[in-house]
Amino acid sequence: MSSRSPLRVLAATVLATGLAVYATLATPLTPAPKNAETYIIWPSDGTVIEGGKLWVRMGLKGMGVCPKGIERPNCGHHHLLIDTELPPMDKEIPNDRNHLHFGAGETDARIELPPGKHTLQLLLGDSKHVPFDPPIYSKKITITVR
Q1: Per-residue pLDDT reduced to its tens digit, 29-63
Q2: What is the reported pTM?
Q3: What is the pLDDT of residues 125-137, one digit of tens each?
Q4: Of residues 33 and 8, which shows the higher confidence score?
Q5: Which residue range or ranges hold the DUF4399 domain (predicted)?
């Protein structure tokens, strides 16, 4: 017969579970170097695009670009936010039609947008698609597709 009471076993299990949850929630964000900057090279703010297909060219200063899953200091990959606000900065960046992931390390991409006004903004993600600390994001630009 065990010398551990069921209450002690339960308390130890609750403590271990609580510590595991805390460790998951308390995972630190990847630090960003000072003065790192991401920016949209093209199109520029106010550009009018004929037809919906266009190339987006992405720039980065003070850091390197690398594919998702690669954990190197001062290295991340681009995410293009289309017609949306910045997501929570302590969670994985969503992956949907408004949050395009360039996890292969792309610095340019061909996208297609319907006619109308659209906003574009870059957000740099770490190896796990989570924004850096502090977050590195571009100015939001507006383009028009005819």
Answers
A1: 999 999 999 999 999 999 999 999 999 999 999 99
A2: 0.81
A3: 999 999 999 999 9
A4: 33
A5: 56-146
Total domain count, the chain: 1
- Strand ranges of the sheet holding 53-61, from the earlier edge strand across to the other edge: 37-42, 53-61, 108-112
- CATH code of the domain covering residue 48: 2.60.40.10
Taking the C-alpha atoms of residue 80 and residue 101, their distance in angstroms, rounded to an integer, is 7
Answer with the residue of higher pLDDT: 6 or 89. 89
At CB < 8 A and 24+ separation, what contacts does 39-47 make?
A: 39/122, 39/138, 39/139, 40/120, 40/121, 40/122, 40/138, 40/139, 40/141, 43/120, 43/141, 43/143, 44/141, 45/139, 45/141, 45/142, 45/143, 46/141, 46/142, 46/143, 47/143, 47/144
Query: Does the residue 110 lie in any domain?
Result: yes
Q: Would you state the structure tokens that stand for residue 88, as one six-digit string?
A: 């929570």
